[in-house]
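Incident log, support desk, overnight shift.

02:14 A customer reports that sequence design results differ from what the structure should imply. Their input is reproduced verbatim below. On-call engineer (initials T.W.) acknowledged and began investigating.
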């Protein structure tokens, strides 16, 4: 079995594959102050809870560099394997056509790999996490570039902490776009506003591409945003885990 670990700024996603099948997954909060022993206990608890037996291999992608060594040690302690780290020297098969390919985040590379192998191209991928990222992949599977926006929850946190009268709210769509109170107005701006942003960005990306593209949404808040879009959108909660599995298989 393969343990795939996607480390984000807010959450770490753990997934276990038996061949091509994802047999179990979960999200845990990211905490850079925790030690390798503490993370090994979290991984062990996840595996025990899901009756996961021996792990034959592991792979990590991370946008939180301080946690890479910690998680490597934790996985070695629990699983007895040395995890592959997505980064320079790892074969991904993605033709990265941005000014400095080294700048592209591991999460975006992993998402590209999954999209290229799972969906018709060209494609546009939105990942709604701590930051909202968009990747544009052309019909030949090349990463052309994209956009980085403020994450939905990050924006709400900023509003709540930076203003005197706006409260902290849970992310969910209101019944109406026109909010009748402060909370519904904030929900409309965050959820419906993000959906409108997605639609507008897709239109502009497709104009530059010169053709229609498959639109894929992933990330913790992706489903909530996609439900409020008028476009034909694929929601793939396991996109990055699938990408990690494919990269591992290409580097065995």
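02:41 Re-run completed on a clean worker. Output:
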């Amino acid at each position: 079995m393969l343990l795939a670990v996607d480390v984000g700024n807010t959450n770490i996603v753990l997934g276990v594959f038996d061949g091509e099948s994802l047999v179990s997954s979960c999200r845990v909060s990211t905490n850079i102050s925790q030690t390798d022993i503490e993370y090994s206990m979290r991984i062990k608890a996840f595996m025990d809870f899901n009756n996961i037996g021996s792990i034959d291999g592991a792979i990590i992608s991370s946008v939180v560099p301080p946690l890479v060594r910690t998680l490597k040690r934790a996985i070695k302690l629990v699983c007895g394997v040395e995890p592959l780290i997505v980064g320079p020297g790892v074969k991904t098969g993605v033709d990265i056509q941005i000014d400095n390919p080294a700048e592209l985040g591991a999460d975006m590379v992993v998402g590209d790999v999954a999209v290229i192998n799972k969906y018709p191209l060209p494609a546009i991928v939105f990942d709604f996490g701590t930051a909202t990222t968009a990747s544009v992949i052309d019909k030949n599977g090349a990463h052309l570039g994209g956009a980085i926006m403020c994450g939905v929850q990050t924006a709400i946190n900023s509003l709540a902490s930076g203003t005197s009268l706006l409260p902290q709210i849970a992310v969910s769509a209101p019944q109406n776009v026109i909010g009748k109170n402060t909370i519904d107005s904030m929900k409309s701006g965050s959820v419906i506003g993000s959906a409108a942003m997605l639609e507008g960005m897709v239109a502009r990306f497709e104009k530059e591409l010169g053709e229609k593209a498959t639109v894929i949404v992933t990330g913790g808040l992706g489903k909530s945003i996609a439900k409020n879009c008028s476009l034909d959108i694929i929601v793939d909660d396991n996109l990055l885990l699938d990408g990690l599995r494919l990269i591992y298989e290409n580097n065995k």
